[in-house]
Structure formats: C-alpha cells, structure tokens
Amino acid sequence: MDLQQIGVQHPIVKRILDIARNTASNRAGLFVAEGLWAHEAVLEAGVPVEVFLWCPEIPHSDQVERLADQLASKAARSYRIGPRTLARIAERDAPDGLVCIAQLPRWDFDALPLGGSALALVADGVEIPGNLGTLIRTLDACRADCLLLTNRRTRLTHPKVLRASQGTSLRVPVADFADPEDALDWLQRNDFTVYLADTDEAVPYRSTRFARRSVLVVGSERYGISKAWYGKGFARVSVPMLGVADSLNVSVCASILLYEARAQLDGW
Amino acid sequence: MDLQQIGVQHPIVKRILDIARNTASNRAGLFVAEGLWAHEAVLEAGVPVEVFLWCPEIPHSDQVERLADQLASKAARSYRIGPRTLARIAERDAPDGLVCIAQLPRWDFDALPLGGSALALVADGVEIPGNLGTLIRTLDACRADCLLLTNRRTRLTHPKVLRASQGTSLRVPVADFADPEDALDWLQRNDFTVYLADTDEAVPYRSTRFARRSVLVVGSERYGISKAWYGKGFARVSVPMLGVADSLNVSVCASILLYEARAQLDGW
User: Is residue B198 a contact partner of residue B191, using CB atoms and an 8 Å limit?
Assistant: First the structure.
C-alpha cells in the first residue's frame, strides 16, 4: 500500500479524538474503531468508512495486513501514521495498527420489516455505555427486532458500546426518540404490547404470557424507568429477587426477560 | 466525633492505595470501600472494619454523619482526614467523605449449609472485575448457594467487584480454588451435577433438566471454559444464539442459565 503519511498535528487526529470523546457535534453518527476485531466488525456490517489510518510499524499478523488492504480500498480517505500518532489516538493497548472513522447504520423505523411476532426493547435513560452495549449484544443473540432509546444518557457512538456489543451495535436496528411519546406512538402504530420491567406490583416473568408483538421497557441504573412510561396501564413484569439486593444489573434483567419472551414467541 | 487527624504522608494512605490497586500482598482479603452506599453495605454485612477515615469538610447529609458515627465506633482504628488526603485516596468522584479498609468474609466451604436442592456457579478464568461483580449480584438475586473461582484472573477485593455486585460480594459465599481439581472434588463430595455453559454440542437450556444439586460452569470472556473442565463427561448447556454474534456476555449467559435452574429447582 502506498499511503500518504500524516502526523500528530494533522486535523484528522483531532477529529478522531473529538469523535471518540464526544467533544464535537456528531450528527452523522460517526464512531472510531480500533484494532483487528473492531475493523472486522466494520467490514462485516458494511458500514461506510470515512477515514482509515494504518500504522504498519506496529508488529502485526498477516490477517491484519490483509484487513488493512481491504480497508484502504473501502475508505473514502486512507493515511499512514507512525507509532507516536497511533499512541496519541489509541484508547486501547493493542490496536494492531488499525484505526478508522466509520458511520453507524441509519435505520428507517417506518420501513422496519416486522413479522407476525416481534420483539423489541426500550432502553429508557440507560447511563453506562457498557450496559447499553451488552443490551445490544443480547438483542442480537435473541434475534430481537429493534432497540428504542428514550431519555438517552449515553451515546451509541461511545467506543465502549461497540466493544461491549461485540460489534452488534452495527447490526441491531436502533432509533433514538427525543420524546418518549414518539417511541410510544411508534410502538402502538405497530401493535406492540408494552411490558415494564419493574419489581413493584409486577407479574413474575415466568407467569407472564407475552403478546405476539412484545416490547420490554428497562430503565436507568439508578432511577429505573422514567415517569413517562407509567400511568398508561402497561403490564409490569419482574424477575424474582430472592436475595438481599433489590435489583439486577439492567442488562442481566433485560436479557432474562428477552429470552423468556423469545422462547414463548418461538415456542421453545 | 473527636478523631485524630492524619495527612497524606501517613502510612495508612499508602496502605489504602496498595489495597485498592493490589500493589502489595493481601492475604487477609482486605478491600477499600468509598462513599455512602459502600459503607452501608459494609455495615449491613457486618464485616470487620480495620480502618475508617472520615473527612467532615466534604459537604454531606445527616445520613452520612450518622453512618460516620457508627463506623468510628465499629472500626479498629479511625482517623480524620482533610479534603486533599481524601482526593489522593478516592477512586470515585463523590465519596461522601467516607473511606474504609474492611475485610471480606471468610467462608468455610466444608461447613456450608446446603439444602436438598442447591445451586452453585463456577467462574473459571473470568477476567473483568465488573463481570465478576455482576455475576455475584445475580447469584444473590437467584439465591444461589455459592461461587467457586478457578483459574482466577481478577480479584474479589477489586473496587469494581464491590460496586458491580452492589455490595453482595460481602454476602455470597465464595471460595478460590488454586487447582480446578480441588473445586471438582468439593462439588462431587457434595453431590453436584456439573453443567458446562458452552454453545458446542450442548443442550439448549430450556430443554435441560437440572439436577437437585446443580452447578454451572462459565469461562473467561476471551477463551471460554478451560480444558480442566472438559473430557469428564459433564453435560453442556447453551443459550441459543440466534443472531450474528457467537456468544453472550458471560454474566448475561450465566444469569439466564442460573434463573432457569432456580425456576426448575423451585418449581416456578
């Protein structure tokens, strides 16, 4: 590969840091990927790559070399960087010499294909990017149709979301609703029955009969589900808490409920 | 409270940092707790408090003040510190002026009370303290009897274990087995049937009939369960993977399986 070399002063370096740290406007949904597995996820998902940076001086495998070739031909712009520039950019210890700016897929929820049975999740006010990523990883695993974000407190472009989701944040349809009422409109237009994950006045999950189109709502780590979702007659579903603590980790709780719903919908 | 003031040069400050960062031997299982909720967990669990440090200059609630009184009378030694010393010690933003060194409970697995039905987890080589803490939080929630650590790669005294477990790391019986064979001996002496969480050649979890005393084995985030657990004729149990990724987060996977086993054992 014959790439132009850029240094630590090049504007792209600042741009990468701005995207990774969310210190500039990012309406296009750009994110930074680092290292072998993240770049494999980017290529497999087929998302647009705006900039690819490659540091061949970092010891790397043949696999990384082949990936670099593919990325250089796919990216709108590609540059070579030295180890010092890479160290300035890289968030992780072993980024294999690969860094790129890529774009999250855009999902048109009005054209989302939904079958006779459908399964969705609302993450309302989830704060920790690792939890959001883990939720998405489970949504992929249980073949849920989509994720709706309301009262969003972390961003899908956070590096930890890509990592915790194992790259599935590029595969699972996600929509961010500024107003929870808009999320509810979409859900009602699409015949979803809403289940709030709550431990108060709730039916235990194994006794809940999930409707053919079911959506679970989980809330923030500290405050639970926001008021906007209450007082609307929605069913509440709980995972029995049998010990001293009064709640489960949000992604654990959602995963237990989602798999129960999936098993019921698919009859296993 | 009339406590002796100590400064940033006092040996206890270094001792706290050594314990939090694991930079000195820690055979006694000491850990550092910071802030309101962690100290509430320490008091509720009734674990020994070796040192309590209190910085009354930090703005705090009456609740924190009352807790400080209780801790000062419980701790073997208590000191007052200034905001500068607190800042040197504190890992988190808002430690409420409270820091202590406390001791994990010691569990005698030979005297562990087990009923006719029992549920246990082996965490084999789990690397990420947040995952270990989340596993323990689920073990408390599903009323599992105990956790066995084999090929341990993170430590129970890590500040993130206490936090991710929501303090239940002080409540759930845990034993650390240097040799997996010793864990297996204990399990077999106690009539546990072993289930390896694996996706290869496994029975889906909803089709698995868990024995009255069941132990699940989960492995490291990167490498899965170590060889020591294979080739022994143990059943394998899987959570169906219906999407593009080939695995779930380890605490999510364990939680789905543990709750299935609990529901079967308790008949709900």
Answer: no
First to last CA, chain B: 51
Residue with tokens 């002063």: A9
Neighbours of B15 (CB within 10 A): 16
Contact residues on chain B for A44, CB-CB shorter than 8 A: 244
DSSP-assigned letter for residue A247: -
What is the C-alpha to C-alpha distance for residues B106 and B103, in angstroms, rounded to an integer? 9
Cβ–Cβ below 8 Å for A239 and B259:
yes
Measured in Å, how far apart are chain A's first and last C-alpha atoms?
A: 51
- State the smallest CA–CA distance between residue A144 and chain B in angstroms: 9
pLDDT tens-digit map of B155-213: 999 999 999 999 999 999 999 999 999 999 999 999 999 999 999 999 999 999 999 99
pLDDT band at B101 (very low <50, low <70, confident <90, very high): very high
Whether the predicted interface score ipTM is above 0.90: yes
Number of Cβ within 10 Å of residue B48's Cβ equals 15
Put simply, whether B44 touches A (Cβ < 8 Å) is yes
Report the distance separating Cα B237 and Cα B217, nearest Å. 10
Burial (CB count within 10 angstroms: exposed 0-12, middle 13-18, buried 19+), residue A114: middle
DSSP line for B57-92: TS---HHHHHHHHHHHHHSSEEEE--HHHHHHH-SS
| Segment holding B102, helix H or strand E | strand B98-103
Q: Is B169 on the interface with A (CB under 8 A)?
A: no
Q: Containing H/E element for A256? A: helix A250-266
Residue A163 contacts B, CB cutoff 8 Å: no
Q: Tell whether the torsion through CA atoms of A252, A256, A261 and A262 is positive or negative.
A: positive
pLDDT in tens, A179-212: 999 999 999 999 999 999 999 999 999 999 999 9
Q: Which two tokens stand for residue B258?
A: 């543990």
One DSSP character per residue, B121-144 reads EEEES---HHHHHHHHHHHHHTT-
Question: Between the CA of residue A227 and those of A150, A151, A196, A219, A223, what are the distances in Å?
Answer: 12, 11, 11, 10, 10
Contact B247, B199 (CB under 8 A): yes
For residues A197 and A253, what is the distance between their CA atoms, to the nearest angstrom?
8
- The total number of residues shown for chain A amounts to 268
Q: Residues A36-64: what's their mean pLDDT?
A: 95
Closest partner residue to A206 (CB to CB) among B139, B172, B268 is B268
Instruction: Mark yes or no for CB contact B252/A142 under 8 Å.
Output: no
Are residues A144 and A120 in contact, defined by beta-carbon separation less than 8 angstroms? yes
Residues 6+ apart with CB under 8 A from A160: A129, A130, A133
- Identify the three-state secondary structure at position A218: strand
Whether the Cβ atoms of residue A102 and residue A33 lie closer than 8 Å to each other: yes
A70-118 pLDDT, tens per residue? 999 999 999 999 999 999 998 877 789 999 999 999 999 999 999 999 9
